[in-house]
Specification:
Elements (H helix, E strand, L loop, with lengths): L10 H21 L9 H9 L10 H11 L12 E2 L8 H13 L11 H17 L6 E5 L2 H21 L14 H4 L3 E6 L4 H9 L7 E4 L9 H13 L3 E8 L11 H11 L2 E6 L23 E5 H4 L7 E5 L38 H10 L1 H24 L4 E3 L7 E6 L6 H18 L3 E7 L2 E7 L7 H29 L6 H6 L3
Parallel strand pairs: 1-11, 3-4, 3-5, 5-6, 6-7
Antiparallel strand pairs: 2-8, 7-8, 9-10, 10-12, 11-12
Helix pairs in contact: 1-3, 4-12, 5-12, 6-8, 13-15, 14-15
The structure holds pyridoxal-5'-phosphate (PLP).
C-alpha cells in the first residue's frame, strides 16, 4: 500500500495532512496585515532556485513548512482590504469546502462515467445561470477555465453558425451539393466590438483562423459604452466591403472602466441583422444576482452566448467560469465523437460533447455549495457593496485637488491619478507607473494601472465587500505621500546632476 495516495486505507493520514495544512494556512492568515510582503522578484527567484527538487522531504509537514515560507509568506492576499488591483475576489467559505471535495474525489466532468451526479450538478448550475440571464428552457452551456476560454468558445460557436448560414442559399434551402468553402470564407469574417472589449476577443479571432484585421472597432459614446448607431454603420460598412459580420461582442463590465454596453439596443440590432451577439459579462455577471442593479443587464437575454466569470463577481476561487448559450443545439456543432469516450449512441449526458476541454475540473460544485449555503441574494448584496464603495472612492478623489478622476464609475473600478494642479500631464504620465511600482514594492496596498487615450491612470478595482471607506481613505493618503516622495526624490536627483539652469532654486537649497 502506497501511503501517500488518497483512499480508504489512508483516511487517517489524509485527515492529518489536511489538518496540518489548514493550521499552517490559518496561522499565516491570522498574521497577515497587508496584501504583499514586498519581496522583489530577485529575492523570490533565489528562494525558489535553492530548493532541491530531487531531494524529497518525505513528510507533508516538512514540505508545508517550506512552502509556507516560500509561497504563503509572499502570497498576494486578495482578502486584504487594501488589495485594490485586479478582478480578484476574496472567496466564499462554502466554495473552499467544495474545493476540498472536488480535489480529493477528483471527478472529471467530461463523461458521465467519470462524474455521474457531478454532470447533473453542473447542468443545474448552467440552467440556473441561464434562468438568471433570462434565457428560455432551450438554453445550455458548460463551465470553462475562465473568461478567456468562454469568449473563445462563444466566438467559435458564432463562427460555426455564420459558416452554416452561408450554406443556406438564397431560396433558404440547405444546398448540400455546395459545401461551404471555409478557406475562402474565413478571411471575410468580422467581429464587431469596442476598443474597450477584453483582449481575449482579438486573441480568439487569431485562434479561430480569422484575418489579422477581423476585429472591427466600434466607436463608443464618450463614456466608453458602445454606440449602437456606430455599430449599425460599422455593420453596413463591413458588408459593403464584402465582409461577413460573424459576431458582435458587447461587454457587460469592461475591464478598465466597468462600462456596460447598451445591451438592449445592441441585441435588437443583432436580431434584425441576423448577427450572433456574444455578451462578455465576465466582470458584470455579479449584476445577475444584484437586487439593486440587475437592470444594468437589461437586454442580456437577447444574446446568443454569454460569458460569466464566477471567479470574479461571485466570490468563487479560480477557476470558475461558464459559457451559456440561448439555443442548446448550437453547442453540438463542435461535438467530436471518440469511440473510447462518448460514442454517438450514448444514452447518458456527456459534457465533453460541448466542451473545448476533455478532462475538466468539477468547478460547478463550488457555486452550488455557495448558493446552497449563503444564497444568491447575499452574493448580490456583496457585489452591490463593492459598487457602492467605488462611488465612495470616487467621491473622495473628485473633491481632492491633488487628484484627477477619469470618469464616474459604473461598476466597481475607479480610474484616477495623483496630479496636483501644477504638475504637467507628461510628468504625471511618467510618475504614475513609478508610484504604482513603489506601492507594490512596499506591499501595504496594491493598485492597478492602465492607459487611456495615451495617458496613464491608476486604477482601483474593488471586489472586496469587507474593504471600508476608511481603508480607501488610507490608501489615498498613502498614494499622495508616495507621489510627493517620488517628486522630492526626482528634484534631489536633478539637483545633483543638473546644470544650474534647470533647477537653480532647488540646487541652491538642496542639502545633499
Ligand atoms: C477578466 C475578463 C476576461 C477574461 O477572463 P479570465 O477569467 O481572466 O480568463 C474577459 N472579459 C472581461 C471583460 C474580463 O474582465
Amino acid at each position: 500500500m502506497y501511503p501517500h495516495l488518497f483512499g480508504r486505507h489512508t483516511v487517517d493520514a489524509y485527515v492529518s495532512s489536511i489538518d496540518q495544512t489548514v493550521a499552517v494556512l490559518a496561522d499565516r492568515v491570522r498574521a497577515v496585515r497587508q496584501p504583499y510582503s514586498g519581496a522583489s522578484v530577485h529575492q523570490l527567484q533565489a528562494m525558489v532556485d535553492t530548493i532541491d527538487l530531487d531531494a524529497p522531504l518525505g513528510v507533508t509537514g516538512a514540505a508545508l513548512d517550506e512552502i509556507a515560507n516560500l509561497y504563503l509568506d509572499h502570497a498576494i492576499w486578495f482578502h486584504e482590504p487594501t488589495y485594490l488591483a485586479h478582478l480578484n475576489c476574496p472567496v466564499a467559505l462554502p466554495a473552499l469546502s467544495a474545493e476540498l471535495l472536488l480535489a480529493a474525489v477528483n471527478s472529471s466532468v467530461d463523461t458521465w462515467d467519470q462524474s455521474s451526479a457531478g454532470t447533473l450538478i453542473e447542468r443545474r448550475m448552467i440552467d440556473w445561470t441561464a434562468g438568471r440571464i433570462g434565457f428560455g428552457p432551450g438554453a445550455d452551456g458548460v463551465f470553462t477555465s475562465g473568461g478567456t476560454q468562454s469568449n473563445l468558445h462563444g466566438l467559435l460557436l458564432a463562427r460555426e453558425q455564420c459558416l452554416a448560414d452561408q450554406q443556406v442559399d438564397a431560396s433558404q434551402q440547405v444546398d448540400a451539393s455546395k459545401p461551404v468553402d471555409r478557406g475562402t470564407l474565413l478571411p471575410r469574417l468580422r467581429i464587431l466590438a469596442t476598443a474597450e472589449s477584453h483582449f481575449s476577443v482579438g486573441k480568439s479571432a487569431g485562434l479561430l483562423g480569422l484575418a489579422a484585421d477581423a476585429v472591427v472597432p466600434v466607436a463608443t459614446d464618450g463614456t466608453g459604452r458602445m454606440n449602437p448607431l456606430a455599430l449599425a454603420a460599422a455593420i453596413d460598412q463591413v458588408r459593403a466591403g464584402g465582409g461577413l459580420p460573424m459576431a458582435v461582442v458587447a461587454t457587460a463590465g469592461t475591464t478598465d472602466r466597468g462600462c456596460v454596453d447598451p445591451l438592449g439596443a445592441i441585441g435588437d440590432l443583432c436580431r434584425t441583422q441576423g448577427i450572433w451577439l456574444h455578451v462578455d459579462a465576465a466582470y458584470g455577471c455579479g449584476l445577475l444576482v444584484s437586487r439593486r442593479r440587475r437592470h444594468l443587464l437589461d437586454g442580456i437575454e437577447l444574446a446568443d452566448s454569454v460569458t460569466v466569470d464566477f471567479h470574479k463577481s461571485f466570490f468563487q476561487p479560480v477557476s470558475s467560469s461558464a459559457i451559456v448559450v440561448r439555443d442548446a443545439t448550437v453547442m453540438c456543432r463542435i461535438a467530436v465523437h471518440a469511440d473510447y469516450l462518448n460514442p454517438r449512441t450514448a444514452t447518458v449526458p456527456n459534457q465533453v460533447d460541448k466542451s473545448l476541454q476533455t478532462t475538466r475540473r468539477f468547478d460547478a460544485l463550488k457555486l452550488w455549495m455557495t448558493l446552497r449555503t449563503i444564497g444568491a441574494d447575499q452574493l448580490g448584496e456583496m457585489f452591490d457593496r463593492v459598487v457602492d464603495l467605488a462611488r465612495e472612492a470616487y467621491g473622495c478623489l473628485v473633491d481632492d485637488l491633488d487628484f484627477e478622476v477619469a470618469t464616474t464609475p459604473t461598476l466597481s473600478t475607479v480610474l484616477f491619478r495623483y496630479r496636483p494642479a501644477w504638475l504637467p500631464v507628461a510628468d504625471c504620465d511618467r510618475l504614475m507607473p513609478q508610484l504604482r511600482d513603489r506601492l507594490f514594492a512596499e506591499g501595504a496596498a496594491i493598485i492597478a494601472g492602465t492607459t487611456i487615450g495615451g495617458h496613464y491612470w491608476l486604477k482601483f478595482t474593488l471586489l472586496n465587500p469587507n474593504t471600508t471607506g476608511e481603508d480607501l481613505r488610507q490608501v489615498i493618503s498613502l498614494i499622495r505621500r508616495t507621489g510627493q516622495d517620488l517628486l522630492d526624490e526626482e528634484w534631489q536627483r536633478a539637483a545633483l546632476v543638473a546644470p544650474t539652469s534647470v533647477v537653480p532654486e532647488v540646487r541652491a537649497n538642496a542639502n545633499v
